[in-house]
């Protein structure tokens, strides 16, 4: 029971801890609370790696943001959280600390989410209208920019990949090398090697 109380506190469900789950004919917890209960069930086993598949699907943007913030707090506490998000809102997008945009296995962007639109604008690919950054990036990853049905998507992809190789590839390689150095450091005193930490190379292998 102490562990259950700890998990309830961890995912901010104290306000509805005595509420039934509910169903089609009986009102219970909200959609966001239901998603957090599912995550809480996984946390009861004290996992080192938490896999969360499309936790925000079907939620409004405010509830989705609150759920992601809960997961961020779990990650800051030392857990490794791997999460997929389908069509994130603009608010969620700007919570991403690092973005790696791939197209057919080739890199197109790597860096902070806040800088991504400035980067593409700097190489001549600015969005024509105000839009969700994720929609814009998805179009670019598919080689779509002008919206013209006769657009050469292959050429657009190649230009973006070439720009990545010239401007950002070195940064990616440097960060990977730094991660490898950390991974091979056998110092037991390093604060990052606690009970929950999973290294970048291990995540790639996974």
TrEMBL record:
<dbReference type="InterPro" id="IPR027417">
    <property type="entry name" value="P-loop_NTPase"/>
</dbReference>
<feature type="domain" description="ABC transporter">
    <location>
        <begin position="4"/>
        <end position="57"/>
    </location>
</feature>
<keyword id="KW-0812">Transmembrane</keyword>
<dbReference type="InterPro" id="IPR050352">
    <property type="entry name" value="ABCG_transporters"/>
</dbReference>
<dbReference type="GO" id="GO:0140359">
    <property type="term" value="F:ABC-type transporter activity"/>
</dbReference>
<feature type="domain" description="ABC transporter family G">
    <location>
        <begin position="86"/>
        <end position="187"/>
    </location>
</feature>
<dbReference type="GO" id="GO:0005886">
    <property type="term" value="C:plasma membrane"/>
</dbReference>
<keyword id="KW-1133">Transmembrane helix</keyword>
<keyword id="KW-0472">Membrane</keyword>
<dbReference type="Pfam" id="PF19055">
    <property type="entry name" value="ABC2_membrane_7"/>
</dbReference>
<dbReference type="InterPro" id="IPR043926">
    <property type="entry name" value="ABCG_dom"/>
</dbReference>
<dbReference type="GO" id="GO:0005524">
    <property type="term" value="F:ATP binding"/>
</dbReference>
<protein>
    <recommendedName>
        <fullName>ABC transporter domain-containing protein</fullName>
    </recommendedName>
</protein>
<dbReference type="GO" id="GO:0016887">
    <property type="term" value="F:ATP hydrolysis activity"/>
</dbReference>
<dbReference type="Pfam" id="PF00005">
    <property type="entry name" value="ABC_tran"/>
</dbReference>
<keyword id="KW-0813">Transport</keyword>
<dbReference type="InterPro" id="IPR003439">
    <property type="entry name" value="ABC_transporter-like_ATP-bd"/>
</dbReference>
């Amino acid at each position: 029971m102490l562990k259950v109380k700890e998990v309830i506190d961890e995912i901010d469900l104290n306000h509805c801890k005595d509420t039934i789950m509910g169903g089609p004919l009986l009102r219970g917890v909200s959609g966001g609370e239901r998603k957090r209960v599912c995550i809480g069930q996984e946390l009861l086993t004290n996992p080192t790696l938490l896999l969360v598949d499309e936790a925000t699907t079907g939620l409004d943007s405010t509830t989705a943001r609150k759920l992601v913030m809960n997961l961020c707090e779990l990650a800051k506490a030392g857990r490794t959280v791997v999460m997929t998000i389908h069509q994130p809102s603009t608010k969620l997008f700007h919570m991403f600390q690092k973005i790696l945009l791939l197209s057919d296995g080739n890199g197109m962007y790597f860096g902070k989410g806040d800088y991504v639109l400035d980067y593409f604008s700097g190489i001549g690919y600015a969005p024509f209208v105000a839009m969700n950054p994720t929609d814009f990036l998805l179009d670019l990853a598919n080689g779509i920019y002008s919206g013209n049905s006769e657009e050469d998507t292959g050429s657009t992809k190649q230009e973006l990949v070439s720009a990545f190789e010239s401007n950002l590839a070195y940064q990616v390689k440097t960060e990977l090398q730094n991660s490898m150095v950390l991974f091979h450091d056998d110092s037991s005193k390093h604060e990052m090697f606690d009970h929950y930490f999973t290294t970048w190379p291990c995540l790639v292998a996974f």
